[in-house]
Amino acid sequence: MQRHRIEPRPDWQQKVEALGLMFHTFEGKPYWYEQAYYSLTAFEVDQLEKATNELQEMCLAAVDFVIENDRFGQLRISPEAAGVIKQAWEADPPAIYGRFDFGYDGSPPKLFEYNADTPTSLLEAAVIQWHWLQELFPEEDQFNSIWEALVQKWKDLKAERAIQGHVVHFAHMDDMEDLMTVTMLQDTAVEAGLQTKGIHMNEIGWDEQSKWFVDMDDMRIQTIFKLYPWEWLVNDEFGKNALATYASAQWIEPIWKMVLSNKGILAILWEMYPNHPYLLEAYLDDPRDMQDYVKKPILSREGANVSIFSGGTVTEMPGEYGEEGYVYQKLYRLPNYGGGYPVIGSWVIDCVSHGIGIRESDGLVTDNNSRFVPHLFTS
Question: Model confidence over 112-157: pLDDT tens digits?
Fold first, then answer.
């Protein structure tokens, strides 16, 4: 794996905006960063793909483990939500995508966390870097079949008649990055032949008489993709309604993703697979005998409230998380290829590895300021 400097396209802003990437600059600095790119070998791509597929199987086994051993309390999941998770796990409703975050230096990848419920940076990984490659390096390849896999997943659900109702609602918060992600997912569903309708999370209503959710046009919501964390949803005003009517409404991602999107799953995985080459030592209660480690709130996002303990010094990130508890994970020293510290986001579509995106940070914590840098690979 190598990092290469390159001149950005002079009109890159207009080109990425034309593809839907409006969030390309943050506080005057490029978020979509094409002043460099990473190159990987085919062996490294195979290594990342193998790790992703194996970890996906391990994570599904971990959901079984949590359910069978009633470990929900350790993950701060309420008994009410736990009961619905058990029902959803047995019913096997549609699940579309997720993103593993890896530390990687050419040796076996190490799992930092699994964004199983509401992963973003999807448009950048699936579309923007692919068009960048086609324009600048048309003879090269990229580990990226994300768009095609998403379209195929929606097609499969349509063919299997696994979608409830005749319209799939796509809901998002009032956030540009979230809107880009949801719009892209909606576009893949449309390409698959599904009828869709966009909606803001605040526009979801509740019909008390009929006991179902409705949109602003009073249309019943039967299938809905929501880029909104389940741990927020179950604690919202209508959270009890979502739990009570879960069997009659189809939520994507399904509620059992609460188990995997919780960073406490890192400790569960280490308990199940101690010393596994893809895992970092992790515990829920305390750091045990680890000297260099990372303290992460089990529900934090974008690096908020993460603390790094290394060589007797502590680096702390600001934020509003932590009351829910922490997981303690062994520190992995990210490599620096001359421009920052890259984290590999490895995408899973329908439980199968389909590509990567690379976020690069000036520090050891990936946050919302971290750059997205395109990649390619050579045989």
Answer: 999 999 999 999 999 999 999 999 999 999 999 999 999 999 999 9
DSSP 64: H
Give the residue among 16, 232, 21 at the shortest CA–CA distance from 135: 16
Interatomic CA distance for residues 20 and 16, integer angstroms: 6
Whether residue 177 has a cis bond before it, omega within 30° of 0: no
- Burial (CB < 10 A; 0-12, 13-18, 19+), residue 2, is exposed
Q: Give CA 361 to chain center in angstroms.
A: 18
Alpha carbon distance, N-terminus to C-terminus of the chain: 12
Number of helices followed by number of strands (H, E) in the chain: 11, 21
Q: Are the beta carbons of 51 and 104 closer than 8 angstroms?
A: no
Q: Is residue 364 over pLDDT 80?
A: no
Condensed to tens digits (0 to 9), the pLDDT of residues 303-355 reads 778 889 988 777 777 777 767 889 999 999 999 998 899 999 999 999 999 99
Separation CA 127–CA 345 (nearest Å): 15
The one-letter amino acid code at 61 reads: A
CA-based nearest residue to 131, from 5, 21, 43, 28 = 21
Distances (CA, A) of 227 to 98, 115, 246, 253, 256: 12, 12, 17, 8, 15
* Run of H or E including 41: strand 36-41
Token pair for 314: 């502590």
In Å, what is the CA distance from 99 to each residue of 91, 114, 146, 270, 334? 23, 6, 11, 19, 19
For the beta carbon of residue 7, count every other beta carbon within 10 angstroms: 8
Q: What is the dihedral of CA 151, 252, 144, 56, to 10 degrees?
A: -130
